[in-house]
Amino acid sequence: MQAESLPERNWYAIKVFFNKVFRMEDILSDKDLETYLPVQKIQLKGREHMLAARRLAQVDDYHRRDARYIQEGPVIYERRPLVTSLIFVKASSEEILQVSISLRDEQIMGRSLGFVYKTADWKEFASIPQKQMESFRLVVESGQSGLDFYSADAFELKEGDKVKVLEGPLAGAEGYIKRIKKNRRLLVCIEGVIAVATSYIPEKYLERIGTE
Question: How far apart are CA 177 and CA 29, in angstroms?
Answer without folding.
Answer: 36
